[in-house]
Structure formats: C-alpha cells, structure tokens
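Hi L.,

You mentioned the student needs an example of a multi-chain input paired with its predicted structure. This one should do, with 804 residues in total across all chains.
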Amino acid sequence: MLTRTLRRTGLPLAYSAGFHPKPILSFGPPLPLGVESEAEYFDLELTRALPEEEVKQALAQHLPPGMEVHTVWKLAPKTPSLMAATTSISYQFALRRKKPLTDAQVEEWFASLWSRPELLVMKKTKQGEKPVNIRPLWKAYELNFQDDGLILFHFEVAFGPQGTIRPDDFDSLLVAAFQIEQRRRTAVSFKAGERRRKVL
Amino acid sequence: MEKPARYTGGELNAVVKPWDQVKVRVALAFPDIYEIGFSHLGLRLLYHLINEEEDYLAERVYAPATDMEQELRKAQLPLFTLESRKSLAQFDLIGFTLQYELSYTNILNMLNLAGIPLKREERGEKDPLIIGGGPGSFNPEPLADFFDLFLLGEGEEAVLEILELVALAKEKGWSKPDIKQELLKVPGVYLPEFYTVEYTNEGQIAAVTPLPPAPPVVQKRIVRDFDQAYLPQKELVPWLEPVHDRAMVELFRGCTRGCRFCQAGMVYRPVRERSPAVLTEYLQKIIAGTGYEEISLTSLSSADYTKIEEIMASLTDCFAAQNVKLSLPSLRIDSFSPELAARFQGERKGGLTFAPEAGTERLRRVINKNLTDEQIMQTTEAAFAAGWQRLKLYFMIGLPTETDADLQGIVELARAILAVGRRLHGPKAGRVQVTVSASTFVPKPHTPFQWRPQLSLAETKRRQDFLQERLVGRGLQFSWHDPTLSQLEGVLSRGDRRLGSALAKAWELGCTFDSWPDQFRWDLWQQALSATGLKVEDYLRARSYQEILPWDHLSTGLKKDYLRREDQRAEEEKLTLDCRTRKDCTTCGVCPHLEARPRLVGGE
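Structure written out for the whole complex:
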C-alpha cells in the first residue's frame, strides 16, 4: 500500500539494487491485525534533499482515504532504525462493562490487576503454548470514563530487546469483566535524542 | 475469519456513488473469492465504464469464502456489495461473469445469500434482473432457469444500451415482461425464456423454438475498432494481494492461430490490435494513478502482437526510470528468445513454462498447433543455455485421435529435454528439473471439437497412470488434474437446460467452490445428477454433425460449416493457416457475419 502511494507521489525515491528494485523504506513495530492506529512511522530514503513540507504535501495528496500524514522530518545520517529506537508503545482500548460495576469498582479492578506481581498469559511459541508473565513489560495505565458508559483504558507497554506485549495479550485478562469494543495504538515512544530532527 | 479485507472494500480508486442520486444500480458479481475475482480485467472495465456514467452506479461483490458465508448466515445478514454494503437484492441488475463452468454453484449460493429466489419464474417484480456475460454465455443453457438474460460477446459494447432500457423502464414504470420485450431488440441479448427446448426420447434436442419476437439466432457483440474501445481513467489498487497484482492492458482481442481445441481462439474473433500510441498513453495514466510496479500485456497470445518488439522497447524506455516491470503472460515456443524471456518473465532462477499441448507432431497437427519436435528441442535448449534450470511443459490428454503412442511422445519429449538440460548445466545437472503438467481435454462449444467425445473417468485415470509410471526418475516430475473435476466441467460445458435442476440439487446438497479441488464433492454431484435422471456419459458422448446442439441458436459469427471442415481436417491431420497470413479470407465466416475485419497495427 505505502510503496504504491510513494510511487504515485513522483518523489525521487531511492531504490534497492537487484532484480526487483524496491523503494528503500523501513518501518517501526508492526501494527497487529484488528488494531487502529494514530501513530505509525516510517523512514524513507530519497535521492536528493527536498523541503519537508514538499514531501508532506506529496504524501498527503496521494495517500488513500482514511490515512493522514502528520509530520515529516529529515533524519541525521546514521540515525538508528525505528525498531532499534522504539522503547515503548501506547494503546487505548474502549471497554464496555459486562457486569454492572460502578466507576469506582472499575478503578479498583484495574488497581488490583496492576498490583499483582505476576500476570500470566498464554503465548504461542514454536513449541506450542506457554505461559508468559507480562507484568514487567506493562509500564503504565490510565482510565477515562465516558458519559455513554464506555471506559477508555490507556496503557503503555515496553518495546525492545527485553520483549514486548501484544495488545491482545491483555484480552484474556480483561475478558471476564469487559467487552473490548475498539483497540487503538496511540503513541510510539523513542529513546531520547535518537530520532531528533536534523539541525538544518 | 480469514482475510477480512476481502469484504471491506475501500480500495484506492473504488467508486462509491450516492445511492439515491442515480437512476440504475448494478451489482457486478464474480462467483469466486476476492483474490481471483479482483484480478479479472473484464469486470473491472465494466465497473469503471458504468461508474463514469452520471446516471448509473456499479458496485462489486465476490463469492464469500466458506467462513464468511457461515458468519453471514449466522447473523442473518444478506450478501452485500463492497461499496455501499447494501444487499444484492436492492440492486436493479446483478451481472455475473461466467468465466468457468465450475463456478456455477457459487452463483446460486450468492443469490441465495442475498435472499433472492434462484429460479427466474419464482422471482417477482421487485427482484433484480440477473444477467450473465463472459465466455460462459456462449452456452449458458445449464443456467437458463436462473438468469433473465445473457449478453453474448464483448460487454463494453452493449452494457450501456441495456442500462438505458432499464432506466427508461423504471421511469415509465414498466413491468418485467415489458422490459424483456424491449431487451429482445438489443443485439447480443439472449433471453432464454423466449426459447422453448424439446427433447427426443433419447435425451437429444428435438427442437429449439423461438417465441416471437425473439430472434431465431442471437449474434454476439464486438468492438469493431479496438482503438476506440473503452479504457478506464483509473484503476483499482487492492489492500489484499490478488492473484494478479499488477496493471493490465490488452494488446489485442481475438487470436489468429486457430487451435482447434481452443474456445477463446474461436469465440473472440476477429483479431483486433490496439495501436502502440493508445497503449502507451493509457499505461502512463494508469501507472501514475495507481503506483503499480508491474504491467502485464495480456491477450490470448501476446507475443503474436504485430509490433511486439517495438512496443516492448518503447514501454521499457517509458517506465524503466520508475522501476516498472513489463510481463507477458505466456511464451510461445516458436518465437522464443532468451533475451525477451529474461526481461519479461523474471529471474532465471524461476521456471519457464511452455505449452506443446500434445506429445507428437501428428497430434499437434490434429489440433492445428504447428510446432515440430525440433522447434521444441531448440527452444528448450536455448532456455537451458541462457541459465534456466526448471522448465514446465503443459500438455492435454484425451485430445481427439490420441493413442498411447502420443502419450509415449510426451514421455520421450520430457526425457530428451531433461537430457539436454543436464548436459548444458554440467556440474549443476542435479538441479535441472522438467515438470510435465497434464490437464484433461474438455471439448468446448463453438470449437471444431464440439462434436468429439470426452474421455471417461476410467480412461482418464488409465492415461494419467500411463504417464505417471513413465515420468519417474531424478529431475522429472508429473502433475495432473483431478479427473473428476474435468468430468463435471465437460458435463456443464456442453450441457443443456435439463442440467438446471441438477445444479440446483447439487447446491442444495452443499456444493460450492467446485473449481477448488479441496472443496469439490464429486460424490454429491453424482447424487445430484442421478436425482435428476441425468447421466454423465450422455454429456461426454460424441455428437453427430446433424444433431441440434444446445447452443446452435447462439452465434459467435463462425459458420458451423467451418467448424465441421476444421474437424474433418483434424481427422486428416491437416494444418490450417494462421489468419494473419491469409488475405481476403472468408473461411470462418466471422468477418462477413459481424461486418468486421482483422485489424493489425501498421496496415493489414
């Protein structure tokens, strides 16, 4: 999808060598199926320097409906890749109560989940399913209560060599009390300084 | 659910029009899954053609896979189009493309999923008109119970005339019978209910009688000047990878070769080429608007295009800077060049496919494929010499007059080719692989072989075994098609109206996706046929030249006498020349019948 969008823009794309040349681009952590996102990044290489605004305009004009370009910035040479620089990812789940719990009870429910030293979920591996403790990778959370009864559960998970939590790893923990109406990625955070704007 | 993007729509350049602001709404339906249906060029052309008209809208629907079907039925949701997500039942017209016979049960399933009664006579004024087009409409008789009309020939030529009538009918408040009276006047439109078919006690057709004012013979429609033929302003770009994920354009329609088994080569005559300027201009527009990285130059035998070298060179110049690749869907053995193949068929690491079709020169003369063993050996040798290690050879078994000697010819050809490959690849001889792929010949309507018998199941198996026993050893591979699928294809291909009940029965028993070997249920189909008193043998048998064929009242412009002469020439092992090389020829009858002529770029 993105490759074809880039080709439509007519930007001076740098291509890989070989029999099947492809535009040189790289992505951050992949978005799981069934999750919306308002925070996707990719690095793109061009054959000549162009103003950031021009690149942004070209992308905005050719992206398929429903996709927007937020910001474009130039990277310094040797900037670490998106995958290497990502430290955490934030998600937001919209939850509906299965049982008549008050807001306070919901707060309490999540507080008790947070306070547990170990949260085991079943993860598929090559050897079959095995339990994994996701608690050390869960970094923060916040709850918002909406007028229509929906609960917005924001949470941040670590990403890096120590591992990460897929958003659906939370499903088995939540499913007893809540129905998950919507999953959305809201932010990707990087190591301080590593993805900063090149000084022009 | 597998691949939900099959049902979401929203592809780039998809057209979503305001439902209430058009006069006529058409659902274009492909009776197979998204990945296959999306790849079909014809339906995409019609989609844009209709949507470019202010007063009409066209939306798409593909057969839901079994998992989606179960979810729809469970939730009691009707089958819907990708654009407005409205039920098929809400459209004025549903157009099914009839690309292969083994998709027919899917048509019934799709109608049923939309809550539309299957049989035409059970449908009311509020139900959509069901129309069929594509190669299947040249013998649509097995579907006659279910469809209101069929369009014979090239859809872009007649579809707007049909929509105009439907728009007028809605405006004037005509009933369905009123509209049908008017549709009868549109050339190329066949309304099966206006023809009664009587059968003899032996189950042959005694008479096909048109009810006035229906024409005794319906003539196919064609675009006479292919440079004037419709080309869309933009093309769809999918979210999910379809079978053919690339820009496509037809170099020409029709084929001049005259292979006697080939229905497409017969029914799409005469040959009409597009000029290089039209091709280039269209492709520039489409590549800019889609970002596709590959262009496929499709046609029945693309390498036959008069200026193939020139168009390849100029398109390469035009698109090389953007890294757009060109591809030709098929390679001809008699015009193969390793340079062309390397450029347009991809890396040498991959395989190359050639289609000798038959194992001996004699049998190739029978089918009018003018190709010597020497040419095959030279071409395959050139391919090995240029670096390819894997070759695939495509054959048919059960061609008219075939004997075990012809099968032995396949074996010897494959072994000889393998030996050449091993010699040329020296130390890497172990990597050389020759795959023989054999499908079963199915005689098709409107071809010189339309009267010929098809192999029985037992005989098909015997001949497959014959090959399998002999095509063994290092570097040789044999692949074949499930013979029961070919049996059903043969039944439906030359079928008559009585098969309508069998189709309905097979669907009731649970048959869908018959073209998918893992889903095909020959046992259920046999049950359906015997429940309706029909026999496989009666459809696979030889016909006499005198017999009335179910499709005799449907004309492709070919003279029946030409088909018979060609069949006799096949028996005599005589070749008939390529139409390109003959001047002022009226042999097959298409040109005088359709007031058309072959059009080749750069003069005649």
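You could point out the following to them. Residues 404-425 of chain B form the longest helix (22 residues). The radius of gyration of chain B is 24 Å.

Best wishes,
N.
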